[in-house]
Amino acid sequence: MRLKFSSWCLMLVLVLAGCTLDESSSTVIENDSPEIVQEQANPTSEASAETETEGLEKNEPEYERTEVPLVRVIDGDTIKVKINNKEENIRFLLIDTPETNHPRMDGPQPFGPEAKKFMEEFMQGGKVEIELDVSERDHYGRILAYVYVNGVSAQEELLKRGLARVAYIFPPNTRYVDSYQVIQEKAQVEGIGIWSVENYAQEDGFFPEYVEDPDAEVPTKENLVTESCTVKGNISSSGEKIYHVETGAYYDRTIPEACFNTEEEAEKAGYRKSMR
To answer: Does residue 121 contact residue 161 with C-beta atoms inside 8 Å?
Structure first.
């Protein structure tokens, strides 16, 4: 009887010990599982984030740039390059620098030589690239483009130094006008370059008289060039005055030198209508 009781006790102890081991083992599994899942989940989450980021980067707009050999710098905002073995003049889009050698002006305008000198140094030995917008040429036959040297925007560098103003904002060539305006505003606040002389740089051009005489009155100027230009007037390289209407073939690609509200106004000013 005593042997049977002892055997029964021994079996009970073993059963209880087995339950304890199972519970302990179960606890270990339960505690380890979240760590393992977490370790496996993190790489997947990171990979997903990287995939999403890569997708966003690929969706950013990219515009084609063409490398061109530089022949020479003509002005702060105009250069001559070679394209298909032919020399072409490139006019920088959306900016205007003071003139250095204009046929209708007596000598260079203030800060014109500085703009040209900076551009010569900026482009020396660099990789010059051009980026087109919608309209490719102006009425002079010059190619309109955004210009880069070693990947740096020439337009932005001129604006940063106060050597150019944002100008000739005519759709559809307005891709970077907002960012250019921000850079110009900073130069204006700092009062550098063309902005160091009050009233010298204005919406319709440069006025050297303010550099020579700070108290000069604002000159009156007829037919100012504005963004809303119903009839665009231009003077050809031969001196002929031509105007373009909104339905004309060359209206969108023309950068006006004078603006008119009607064709009658343009004709009274000595302009003739474009044949196209």
So the answer is: no
* Residue 5 token pair: 């009781």
Contacts of 170 (CB under 8 A, 6+ apart): 227, 229, 252, 254, 255, 256
Neighbours of 252 (CB within 10 A): 15
Q: 3-class secondary structure for 213-234? A: CCCCCCCCCCCCCCCCCCEEEE
Instruction: List the chain domain ranges.
Output: 66-212, 231-273
**Is 99 one of the annotated active-site residues of the chain?**
yes
Render each residue's pLDDT in the chain as its tens digit; 276 residues: 444 545 545 555 454 555 444 444 443 333 333 333 333 444 444 444 444 444 444 444 579 999 999 999 999 999 999 999 999 999 999 999 999 976 666 779 999 999 999 999 999 999 999 999 999 999 889 999 999 999 999 999 999 999 999 999 999 999 999 999 999 999 999 999 999 999 999 888 898 888 866 555 544 444 555 556 788 887 764 567 888 888 887 777 677 778 888 999 889 888 888 877
Q: Which class in CATH covers the domain with range 66-212?
A: mainly beta
Among the listed residues 88, 114, 142, 165, the single catalytic one is 142
175 is catalytic: no
Quick check: pTM over 0.85?
no
Long-range contacts of 81-89 (CB under 8 A, 24+ apart): 81/128, 81/130, 83/143, 88/142, 88/143, 89/140, 89/141, 89/142, 89/143
Helix (H, G, I), strand (E, B) or coil at 236: coil
Mind giving me the DSSP string for 16-51?
Answer: HHHHHHHHHHHHHHHHHHHHHHHHHHHHHHHHHHHH
Could you say which of 88, 91, 156, 265 is catalytic?
Answer: 91
The C-alpha angle with vertex 270 and arms to 266 and 274, in degrees rounded to 5, equals 65
Residue 114 falls in the annotated catalytic set? no
